[in-house]
Write a structure and sequence with these properties.
Threonyl-tRNA Synthetase, Chain A, domain 2, globular, nine-stranded mixed beta sheet, four-stranded antiparallel beta sheet, alpha/beta, 9 helices
Length: 294
């Protein structure tokens, strides 16, 4: 049974805490990989950010990531059924499929600002494009190390703006979605693009990628941009955030992890495998290595 599983997971506040702590996540990923269970990253992060995290997460093989909230899919060579192109990042060869075209970010930024000015939308504190923030400022907002935070503005497919004013972001979301934009609301950021979101990308993978097709899919996420991909997986799991409201799904069969990230991610997968995989048990030895045993 366990070889017929695939895990789709958001990163921030799902696998990784708001202070950048991964806890036992790398050990569980190593265990899942050894059992033939791919872990597909589904994130608003850029591919540069994800590659910088790959080694920390412990993903050695079967690397595949949905980036910029579903705008493109990157993977190790030979995984994707067809590719839009190939690239080399931080010494790693990758192939990718673009699910939307790259956009002229400055023109889209001008258009977004024009629409919000026309509708007299003002946030408190004001909405600001992340490319106008320093690495130090982004580090304070996200809790990430400065070098990782500096990668946040390096976008190809969507714009990211900062304001903690959630009511204002909800107004912006409604206005821009009526104009044909994709809008994802995070707790600090609002993501704006012209693509179809994480759910579309996850469905694309499940329907087309050999080695993932026809597997039971587990999805883990914590925030509003994760809802559409949690709605399409077989087993949706919500990771609670230590602050702020918990997301809800339209479907009734989701579960809620007992803890925030990263321990909620670990315990949810442990629990699922123990309950559903023919009496298998996950154990940790005295030197900190994880094992899957009968």
């Amino acid at each position: 049974m366990y070889g017929r599983l695939v895990v789709f997971s958001d990163i921030d506040h799902t696998m990784m805490s708001n202070k950048g702590d991964l806890g036992e996540v790398p050990g569980i990923i190593d265990l899942l990989e050894s059992a033939g269970i791919p872990v597909v990253l589904v994130t608003a992060k850029t591919i540069s950010e994800v590659i910088s995290l790959r080694r920390s997460l412990g993903i050695k093989k079967w690397f595949i990531a949905v980036i910029e909230s579903g705008a493109a899919i990157f993977a190790d060579p030979g995984i994707l059924p067809y590719v839009s192109g190939r690239t080399r990042l931080v010494g790693e060869e990758l192939e990718y499929v673009e699910l939307t075209a790259k956009i002229d970010l400055e023109k889209i930024d001008d258009k977004v600002k024009s629409i919000l000015k026309e509708r007299n939308i003002e946030c408190d504190p004001p909405l600001v494009n992340v490319w106008d923030l320093s690495g130090e400022e982004l580090s304070r907002i996200t809790g990430l190390p400065v070098e990782q935070a500096k990668l946040i503005p390096t976008r190809d497919y969507m714009l990211v703006y900062y304001t903690p004013d959630m009511k204002c972001k909800e107004k912006i979301k409604n206005i821009l979605e009526s104009r044909g934009f994709y809008v994802g609301l995070g707790r600090n950021f609002i993501h704006i693009g012209l693509h179809r979101g994480k759910g579309w990308a996850v469905r694309w993978i499940m329907e087309r990628v050999p080695g993932i097709m026809n597997k039971t899919s587990i999805g883990l996420g914590d925030s509003a941009p994760d809802v559409d991909f949690l709605e399409v997986v077989d087993v949706p799991i919500i990771i609670p955030h230590p602050t702020g409201p918990r997301i809800r799904l339209a479907r009734p069969d989701y579960s809620i992890a007992p803890y925030p990230a990263p321990s909620g991610w670990v315990s949810s997968l442990q629990d699922y495998i123990v309950r559903n995989c023919s009496g298998l048990v996950i154990v940790k030895d005295l030197v900190g290595s994880w094992y899957l045993i009968r």
